[in-house]
Protein backbone atom coordinates (compact mmCIF):
# COMPACT_ATOMS: atom_id res chain seq x y z
CA UNK A 1 0.00 0.00 0.00
CA UNK A 2 1.68 3.20 -1.17
CA UNK A 3 0.48 6.71 -0.21
CA UNK A 4 1.76 10.24 -0.61
CA UNK A 5 1.68 10.87 3.12
CA UNK A 6 1.55 8.46 6.05
CA UNK A 7 0.14 9.98 9.22
CA UNK A 8 1.10 8.19 12.42
CA UNK A 9 -1.50 8.98 15.06
CA UNK A 10 -5.22 9.63 14.80
CA UNK A 11 -5.74 12.39 17.35
CA UNK A 12 -6.40 16.08 16.61
CA UNK A 13 -2.94 16.69 15.09
CA UNK A 14 -2.96 13.57 12.88
CA UNK A 15 -6.54 14.07 11.70
CA UNK A 16 -5.87 17.74 10.92
CA UNK A 17 -2.73 16.74 8.99
CA UNK A 18 -4.63 14.09 7.00
CA UNK A 19 -7.46 16.49 6.13
CA UNK A 20 -4.95 19.09 4.92
CA UNK A 21 -3.00 16.55 2.86
CA UNK A 22 -6.27 15.67 1.13
CA UNK A 23 -7.05 19.37 0.63
CA UNK A 24 -3.82 19.55 -1.39
CA UNK A 25 -4.95 16.63 -3.54
CA UNK A 26 -2.54 14.08 -2.10
CA UNK A 27 -3.38 10.65 -0.69
CA UNK A 28 -3.15 10.08 3.05
CA UNK A 29 -3.24 7.05 5.34
CA UNK A 30 -3.79 7.51 9.07
CA UNK A 31 -2.29 4.76 11.24
CA UNK A 32 -3.92 4.84 14.64
CA UNK A 33 -5.27 3.03 17.66
CA UNK A 34 -9.09 3.00 18.01
CA UNK A 35 -10.45 6.51 18.62
CA UNK A 36 -11.72 5.57 22.09
CA UNK A 37 -8.14 4.86 23.20
CA UNK A 38 -7.09 8.46 22.60
CA UNK A 39 -6.52 10.19 25.97
CA UNK A 40 -8.71 13.08 24.80
CA UNK A 41 -11.68 10.68 24.53
CA UNK A 42 -12.10 10.78 28.31
CA UNK A 43 -12.11 14.59 28.60
CA UNK A 44 -15.56 15.59 29.83
CA UNK A 45 -15.32 19.11 28.49
CA UNK A 46 -12.90 21.04 26.35
CA UNK A 47 -13.58 24.69 26.91
CA UNK A 48 -10.84 26.44 24.95
CA UNK A 49 -11.35 25.22 21.40
CA UNK A 50 -12.29 28.47 19.73
CA UNK A 51 -15.87 28.84 18.68
CA UNK A 52 -16.92 25.41 19.86
CA UNK A 53 -17.09 25.62 23.65
CA UNK A 54 -18.25 22.91 26.03
CA UNK A 55 -17.87 19.97 23.71
CA UNK A 56 -16.54 16.74 25.17
CA UNK A 57 -13.26 15.21 24.01
CA UNK A 58 -15.22 12.35 22.45
CA UNK A 59 -17.47 14.75 20.53
CA UNK A 60 -14.49 16.68 19.20
CA UNK A 61 -12.57 13.54 18.21
CA UNK A 62 -15.60 12.07 16.47
CA UNK A 63 -16.16 15.28 14.51
CA UNK A 64 -12.45 15.50 13.58
CA UNK A 65 -12.38 11.92 12.37
CA UNK A 66 -15.57 12.35 10.35
CA UNK A 67 -14.07 15.43 8.69
CA UNK A 68 -10.83 13.62 7.81
CA UNK A 69 -12.77 10.62 6.54
CA UNK A 70 -15.08 12.72 4.38
CA UNK A 71 -12.03 14.39 2.85
CA UNK A 72 -10.93 10.98 1.59
CA UNK A 73 -8.24 10.07 4.10
CA UNK A 74 -7.86 6.33 4.64
CA UNK A 75 -7.43 4.63 8.00
CA UNK A 76 -5.49 1.65 9.29
CA UNK A 77 -5.98 0.49 12.87
CA UNK A 78 -2.80 -0.55 14.63
CA UNK A 79 0.48 0.58 16.11
CA UNK A 80 3.43 1.70 14.02
CA UNK A 81 6.33 -0.50 15.11
CA UNK A 82 9.27 0.61 13.04
CA UNK A 83 10.11 2.85 10.11
CA UNK A 84 12.90 2.94 7.61
CA UNK A 85 13.81 5.01 4.61
CA UNK A 86 14.90 3.29 1.44
CA UNK A 87 15.28 5.12 -1.85
CA UNK A 88 12.74 7.96 -1.94
CA UNK A 89 10.21 6.25 0.31
CA UNK A 90 9.45 5.69 3.94
CA UNK A 91 8.35 2.19 4.91
CA UNK A 92 6.40 1.82 8.14
CA UNK A 93 5.44 -1.51 9.65
CA UNK A 94 2.10 -1.78 11.42
CA UNK A 95 1.50 -5.14 13.13
CA UNK A 96 1.72 -7.74 10.41
CA UNK A 97 1.54 -5.34 7.51
CA UNK A 98 3.71 -2.68 5.90
CA UNK A 99 2.77 0.65 4.36
CA UNK A 100 4.74 3.02 2.16
CA UNK A 101 4.73 6.80 1.86
CA UNK A 102 6.71 9.62 0.29
CA UNK A 103 6.40 11.68 3.48
CA UNK A 104 5.40 10.99 7.08
CA UNK A 105 3.62 13.08 9.68
CA UNK A 106 4.41 11.85 13.18
CA UNK A 107 1.52 12.76 15.46
CA UNK A 108 1.48 9.93 17.96
CA UNK A 109 1.06 12.01 21.10
CA UNK A 110 3.14 11.95 24.22
CA UNK A 111 4.61 8.57 25.02
CA UNK A 112 4.69 8.39 28.79
CA UNK A 113 6.88 6.13 30.82
CA UNK A 114 10.53 5.35 30.67
CA UNK A 115 12.03 2.09 29.47
CA UNK A 116 11.95 -0.75 31.98
CA UNK A 117 15.15 -2.06 33.54
CA UNK A 118 16.37 -4.81 31.22
CA UNK A 119 14.18 -3.71 28.30
CA UNK A 120 16.89 -2.27 26.05
CA UNK A 121 19.48 -4.88 27.06
CA UNK A 122 17.21 -7.84 26.26
CA UNK A 123 15.46 -6.40 23.19
CA UNK A 124 15.47 -9.11 20.53
CA UNK A 125 16.48 -11.66 23.14
CA UNK A 126 13.02 -12.27 24.51
CA UNK A 127 11.84 -8.67 24.75
CA UNK A 128 9.47 -7.88 21.90
CA UNK A 129 7.11 -5.08 20.88
CA UNK A 130 5.23 -7.20 18.33
CA UNK A 131 3.13 -10.19 19.32
CA UNK A 132 2.16 -11.02 15.75
CA UNK A 133 5.83 -10.97 14.66
CA UNK A 134 7.52 -12.97 17.36
CA UNK A 135 4.70 -14.98 18.93
CA UNK A 136 5.31 -18.03 16.73
CA UNK A 137 8.88 -18.30 18.08
CA UNK A 138 7.47 -18.91 21.57
CA UNK A 139 4.78 -21.54 20.90
CA UNK A 140 4.38 -23.87 23.88
CA UNK A 141 6.38 -21.50 26.05
CA UNK A 142 5.43 -19.24 28.92
CA UNK A 143 5.40 -15.58 27.97
CA UNK A 144 4.34 -12.39 29.73
CA UNK A 145 2.29 -9.68 28.06
CA UNK A 146 2.54 -6.27 29.70
CA UNK A 147 -0.40 -4.32 28.32
CA UNK A 148 -1.07 -0.62 28.64
CA UNK A 149 -3.91 -0.38 26.10
CA UNK A 150 -7.22 -2.20 25.57
CA UNK A 151 -5.85 -3.50 22.22
CA UNK A 152 -3.10 -5.30 24.12
CA UNK A 153 -5.68 -7.83 25.34
CA UNK A 154 -6.38 -8.75 21.73
CA UNK A 155 -2.70 -9.40 21.14
CA UNK A 156 -2.55 -11.53 24.30
CA UNK A 157 -5.50 -13.55 22.98
CA UNK A 158 -3.67 -13.97 19.68
CA UNK A 159 -0.64 -15.38 21.52
CA UNK A 160 -2.86 -17.82 23.42
CA UNK A 161 -4.49 -18.83 20.16
CA UNK A 162 -1.19 -19.86 18.61
CA UNK A 163 -0.21 -21.91 21.66
CA UNK A 164 1.75 -19.64 24.01
CA UNK A 165 1.11 -19.84 27.76
CA UNK A 166 0.27 -16.23 28.43
CA UNK A 167 0.65 -14.35 31.68
CA UNK A 168 -1.27 -11.12 31.09
CA UNK A 169 -0.46 -8.13 33.26
CA UNK A 170 -2.80 -5.20 32.86
CA UNK A 171 -1.10 -1.79 33.27
CA UNK A 172 1.57 -3.20 35.57
CA UNK A 173 3.81 -0.99 37.69
CA UNK A 174 7.37 -1.22 38.92
CA UNK A 175 8.42 -3.84 36.41
CA UNK A 176 11.87 -5.14 35.57
CA UNK A 177 12.93 -7.72 33.03
CA UNK A 178 15.57 -10.18 34.14
CA UNK A 179 17.96 -12.47 32.35
CA UNK A 180 21.57 -12.72 31.30
CA UNK A 181 21.76 -13.93 27.68
CA UNK A 182 18.00 -13.98 27.23
CA UNK A 183 14.82 -13.24 29.12
CA UNK A 184 14.38 -15.48 32.13
CA UNK A 185 11.85 -13.69 34.28
CA UNK A 186 9.79 -10.56 34.78
CA UNK A 187 9.16 -8.84 38.08
CA UNK A 188 6.20 -6.51 38.55
CA UNK A 189 5.15 -5.03 41.87
CA UNK A 190 7.53 -7.33 43.73
CA UNK A 191 6.21 -10.56 42.19
CA UNK A 192 8.63 -12.49 39.95
CA UNK A 193 7.41 -14.88 37.27
CA UNK A 194 9.59 -17.14 35.13
CA UNK A 195 8.94 -16.46 31.44
CA UNK A 196 10.86 -16.84 28.18
CA UNK A 197 9.55 -13.71 26.53
CA UNK A 198 8.11 -10.38 27.54
CA UNK A 199 5.84 -8.55 25.09
CA UNK A 200 5.61 -4.84 25.87
CA UNK A 201 2.48 -3.34 24.38
CA UNK A 202 2.30 0.40 24.94
CA UNK A 203 -0.07 2.84 23.20
CA UNK A 204 2.76 3.98 20.90
CA UNK A 205 6.45 3.46 20.31
CA UNK A 206 8.73 6.23 21.57
CA UNK A 207 9.51 8.51 18.57
CA UNK A 208 13.26 7.86 18.78
CA UNK A 209 12.67 4.08 18.72
CA UNK A 210 10.27 4.34 15.80
CA UNK A 211 12.60 6.60 13.79
CA UNK A 212 16.24 5.86 14.65
CA UNK A 213 18.25 9.09 14.46
CA UNK A 214 15.26 11.36 15.10
CA UNK A 215 16.29 14.43 17.03
CA UNK A 216 14.47 14.80 20.35
CA UNK A 217 14.85 16.98 23.42
CA UNK A 218 13.31 16.46 26.84
CA UNK A 219 11.21 13.57 25.53
CA UNK A 220 9.73 15.64 22.69
CA UNK A 221 10.41 15.62 18.96
CA UNK A 222 12.40 18.61 17.70
CA UNK A 223 10.58 20.39 14.85
CA UNK A 224 10.98 23.78 13.18
CA UNK A 225 8.19 26.24 12.33
CA UNK A 226 7.32 24.20 9.25
CA UNK A 227 7.07 21.14 11.52
CA UNK A 228 10.10 19.60 9.81
CA UNK A 229 12.19 17.17 11.86
CA UNK A 230 15.86 16.43 11.16
CA UNK A 231 14.88 13.41 9.00
CA UNK A 232 14.02 13.92 5.31
CA UNK A 233 10.28 13.86 4.69
CA UNK A 234 9.39 13.39 8.36
CA UNK A 235 7.21 16.09 9.91
CA UNK A 236 5.86 16.16 13.46
CA UNK A 237 2.74 17.69 14.99
CA UNK A 238 0.76 17.82 18.20
CA UNK A 239 1.66 16.71 21.69
CA UNK A 240 4.76 14.81 20.54
CA UNK A 241 6.46 18.15 19.77
CA UNK A 242 5.84 19.54 23.28
CA UNK A 243 3.38 21.72 25.15
CA UNK A 244 0.92 23.23 25.46
CA UNK A 245 -0.77 19.82 25.19
CA UNK A 246 -4.00 21.32 23.87
CA UNK A 247 -6.34 20.59 20.99
CA UNK A 248 -6.02 23.98 19.24
CA UNK A 249 -2.25 23.81 19.15
CA UNK A 250 -2.36 20.22 17.85
CA UNK A 251 -4.84 21.08 15.10
CA UNK A 252 -2.73 24.07 14.01
CA UNK A 253 0.49 22.11 13.90
CA UNK A 254 -1.32 19.32 12.07
CA UNK A 255 -2.35 21.80 9.37
CA UNK A 256 1.23 23.01 8.85
CA UNK A 257 2.67 19.51 8.93
CA UNK A 258 0.02 18.20 6.53
CA UNK A 259 0.60 21.01 4.02
CA UNK A 260 4.39 20.74 4.19
CA UNK A 261 4.28 16.93 3.93
CA UNK A 262 2.00 17.20 0.88
CA UNK A 263 4.47 19.62 -0.72
CA UNK A 264 7.37 17.29 0.08
CA UNK A 265 5.50 14.37 -1.48
CA UNK A 266 4.70 16.42 -4.58
CA UNK A 267 8.41 17.07 -5.12
CA UNK A 268 9.28 13.34 -5.01
CA UNK A 269 9.42 11.84 -8.47
CA UNK B 1 23.30 -14.32 -7.71
CA UNK B 2 19.96 -12.91 -6.73
CA UNK B 3 18.25 -13.32 -3.39
CA UNK B 4 18.08 -16.96 -2.37
CA UNK B 5 15.41 -18.62 -0.25
CA UNK B 6 17.10 -21.35 1.75
CA UNK B 7 15.63 -24.44 3.39
CA UNK B 8 17.28 -26.34 6.25
CA UNK B 9 18.50 -28.98 3.80
CA UNK B 10 20.12 -26.39 1.50
CA UNK B 11 21.49 -24.10 4.16
CA UNK B 12 24.91 -25.59 4.93
CA UNK B 13 25.82 -26.18 1.31
CA UNK B 14 25.00 -22.59 0.42
CA UNK B 15 25.58 -20.27 3.39
CA UNK B 16 28.03 -22.60 5.16
CA UNK B 17 30.56 -22.40 2.34
CA UNK B 18 30.16 -18.83 1.21
CA UNK B 19 33.09 -16.54 2.12
CA UNK B 20 30.53 -13.91 3.11
CA UNK B 21 26.82 -14.35 3.63
CA UNK B 22 23.93 -12.34 5.01
CA UNK B 23 20.84 -14.30 6.05
CA UNK B 24 17.49 -12.65 6.82
CA UNK B 25 15.29 -14.73 9.14
CA UNK B 26 11.75 -13.63 8.48
CA UNK B 27 8.09 -14.67 8.30
CA UNK B 28 5.20 -13.52 6.14
CA UNK B 29 3.05 -12.42 9.10
CA UNK B 30 5.59 -9.91 10.32
CA UNK B 31 5.26 -6.27 9.22
CA UNK B 32 8.88 -5.23 9.85
CA UNK B 33 10.00 -8.31 7.85
CA UNK B 34 7.93 -7.20 4.87
CA UNK B 35 9.49 -3.78 5.15
CA UNK B 36 12.93 -5.31 4.98
CA UNK B 37 12.01 -7.44 1.95
CA UNK B 38 12.72 -4.84 -0.75
CA UNK B 39 15.90 -3.75 1.07
CA UNK B 40 17.24 -7.31 0.93
CA UNK B 41 16.25 -7.66 -2.74
CA UNK B 42 18.25 -4.54 -3.58
CA UNK B 43 21.26 -5.60 -1.52
CA UNK B 44 21.24 -9.03 -3.18
CA UNK B 45 21.54 -7.36 -6.58
CA UNK B 46 24.11 -4.87 -5.35
CA UNK B 47 26.40 -7.51 -3.78
CA UNK B 48 26.04 -10.06 -6.55
CA UNK B 49 29.29 -12.01 -6.83
CA UNK B 50 30.59 -10.52 -3.57
CA UNK B 51 28.27 -11.86 -0.89
CA UNK B 52 25.45 -14.37 -0.63
CA UNK B 53 22.21 -12.70 0.40
CA UNK B 54 19.59 -15.19 1.53
CA UNK B 55 16.30 -15.45 3.37
CA UNK B 56 15.04 -18.15 5.73
CA UNK B 57 11.34 -18.42 6.51
CA UNK B 58 11.25 -19.25 10.25
CA UNK B 59 7.76 -20.66 9.93
CA UNK B 60 8.86 -23.26 7.39
CA UNK B 61 12.36 -23.79 8.83
CA UNK B 62 12.00 -23.72 12.63
CA UNK B 63 15.13 -25.85 13.08
CA UNK B 64 17.34 -23.22 11.47
CA UNK B 65 15.72 -20.51 13.57
CA UNK B 66 16.46 -22.53 16.73
CA UNK B 67 20.00 -23.28 15.63
CA UNK B 68 20.74 -19.58 15.25
CA UNK B 69 18.82 -18.66 18.39
CA UNK B 70 16.46 -16.37 16.53
CA UNK B 71 14.19 -14.86 19.20
CA UNK B 72 12.74 -11.95 17.29
CA UNK B 73 12.15 -11.30 13.61
CA UNK B 74 13.48 -9.93 11.42
CA UNK B 75 16.95 -11.06 12.50
CA UNK B 76 19.76 -10.71 9.99
CA UNK B 77 22.79 -12.93 10.63
CA UNK B 78 26.18 -12.31 8.99
CA UNK B 79 28.40 -15.32 8.31
CA UNK B 80 31.93 -15.96 7.10
CA UNK B 81 32.27 -19.54 5.87
CA UNK B 82 29.29 -20.47 7.99
CA UNK B 83 30.49 -18.78 11.16
CA UNK B 84 28.42 -15.98 12.58
CA UNK B 85 30.35 -12.76 13.16
CA UNK B 86 27.56 -10.22 13.52
CA UNK B 87 23.78 -9.91 13.66
CA UNK B 88 21.13 -7.22 13.55
CA UNK B 89 17.74 -7.63 15.20
CA UNK B 90 14.97 -5.49 13.73
CA UNK B 91 14.64 -3.65 10.43
CA UNK B 92 17.28 -1.04 9.60
CA UNK B 93 18.03 1.17 6.58
CA UNK B 94 20.17 -0.38 3.82
CA UNK B 95 23.30 1.47 4.98
CA UNK B 96 23.36 -0.47 8.27
CA UNK B 97 23.71 -3.77 6.40
CA UNK B 98 26.10 -2.36 3.81
CA UNK B 99 28.42 -1.20 6.54
CA UNK B 100 28.82 -4.73 7.96
CA UNK B 101 29.24 -6.28 4.52
CA UNK B 102 31.71 -3.67 3.26
CA UNK B 103 33.97 -4.11 6.28
CA UNK B 104 34.25 -7.81 5.47
CA UNK B 105 34.79 -7.69 1.73
Calculate Rg of chain A over CA atoms: 19 Å
Distance between the termini of chain B: 16 Å
How many separate domains make up the residues of chain B?
1
User: What is the overall shape of chain A?
Assistant: globular
Number of contiguous helices of chain B = 4
Overall average pLDDT of chain A? 95
CATH H-level homologous superfamily name of the largest domain in chain A: FAD/NAD(P)-binding domain
Q: Give the C-alpha Rg of chain B.
A: 12 Å
* Structural class assignment of chain B: alpha/beta
Helix content of chain B: 25-40%
Describe this protein's structure:
The complex is a heterodimer of chains A (269) and B (105). Helices cover 25% and strands 29% of the residues of chain A. Chain A is of the alpha/beta class. Chain A is globular. The two termini of chain B are 16 Å apart. In chain B, strand 2, helix 2 and strand 3 form a beta-alpha-beta unit. Chain B has helices spanning 8-14, 31-46, 62-67, 94-104, and strands spanning 4-5, 21-26, 52-57, 75-80, 83-89. A 5-stranded mixed β-sheet of chain B has the order 1-3-2-4-5. Chain B is built from 4 helices and 5 strands; from the N terminus they run E-H-E-H-E-H-E-E-H. Classes of the chains: A alpha/beta (269), B alpha/beta (105). The A-B interface holds A 81-82, 84-86, 91-98, 123-128, 130, 132-134, 136-137, 182, 197, 212 and B 27, 29-36, 38-39, 42, 58-59, 65, 70-73, 75, 89-94.
Amino acid sequence: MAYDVLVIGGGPAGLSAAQNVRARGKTALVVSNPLEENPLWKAKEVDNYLGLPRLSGAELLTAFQRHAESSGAEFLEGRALSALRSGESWYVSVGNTMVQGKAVVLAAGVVRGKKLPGEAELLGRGVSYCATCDGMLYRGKRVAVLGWTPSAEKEAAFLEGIGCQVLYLDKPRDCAIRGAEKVEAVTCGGVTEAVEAVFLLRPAMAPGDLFPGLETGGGFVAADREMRTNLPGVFAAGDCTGGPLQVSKAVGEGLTAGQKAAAFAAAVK
Amino acid sequence: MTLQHLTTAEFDAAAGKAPLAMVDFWAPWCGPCQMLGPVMENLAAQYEGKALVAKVNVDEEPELARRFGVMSIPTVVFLKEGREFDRKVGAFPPAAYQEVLDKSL
